[in-house]
Amino acid sequence: MRFATNLTDKEYVSRRAWNTVSAPPCPWCKPGTCELAPHGFYPRVKPQGAWIRRFICRTVKRTVSLLPDCFAAWVQGTLEEQEEPVRVAERAATQAAAVEQVRPPGECSLASAQRWLQRRMRWVGVLLVAVKGLYPERFTGVEPTLAGFGQQLGSETVLRTLREVAEAQLGNLPAPVGFRRVSVTLRTGPRAATKQASGLSPPPGSG
Q1: Which residues form the domain of 15?
Q2: What is the separation of C-alpha 179 from the centre of its chain, rounded to a whole number of angstroms?
Q3: 138 in a domain, yes or no?
């Protein structure tokens, strides 16, 4: 579920904002019949030192995590980090030129850098088309590009803005904005089990 916040990833870590997260309404039980219980934390790979708060419904024995708006879902890093290379690709004369501009550190070949960029272009493209379908009254006639959506929304951080605009549909929207995994390429670790064990606790000094 979404943890609505204006914090950047660095601010989230420096303020240890995971300690300020309150339990949301249970998404499975009738209103007023259930209170989610704390269920530990899990760490983000990036940025180092970031923890995500988890809660559990003891009735249905399912957990929910509160993901801050700054973080991408099912992929490392922030939403802005996923958005920027796609913006470059939209402005570039060719995809090859875009790859040279956004080639991530550590990529050892042009082919791997191309795949890296193509994945992000595909993620964003699928997301924007899905949002248009869910909100036709707002996005009819808008090109499914970051530039087109940015102009319509009046925002320079389209993906982060869309997480707020489409909050009610995040469970149906694909990552990195929504919470639905669309392919194995979005996973950064083993598939999570349906029934999860109690989460970790942050190391001493981070709580």
Answers
A1: 2-68
A2: 7
A3: yes
Spatial contact of 51 and 18, defined as CB atoms under 8 Å apart: yes
- Output the tens digit of pLDDT for each of the chain's 207 residues: 999 999 999 999 999 999 999 999 999 999 989 999 999 999 999 889 999 999 999 999 999 999 999 999 999 999 999 999 999 999 999 988 999 888 877 666 788 888 889 999 999 999 999 999 999 999 999 999 999 999 999 999 999 999 999 999 999 999 999 999 866 444 444 444 444 455 667 766 655
In angstroms, the CA 89 to CA 113 distance is 13
Determine, yes or no, domain membership for 203.
Answer: no
User: Which residue, among 163, 165, 164, 138, has the nearest Cα to 152 in the 3D structure?
Assistant: 138
Token code pair at residue 173: 């929207």
Tell me if 199 is assigned to some domain: no
Tell me: do 15 and 110 sit in the same domain.
no
| Domains held by the chain: number | 2
This prediction's pTM: 0.85
| Domain co-membership, 54 together with 87 | no
Tell me if 69 sits within 8 A of 157, measured CB to CB. Answer: no
Burial bucket for residue 80 (CB in 10 Å: 0-12, 13-18, 19+): middle
Distance CA 25, CA 154 (A): 31
Same domain flag for 89 and 14:
no
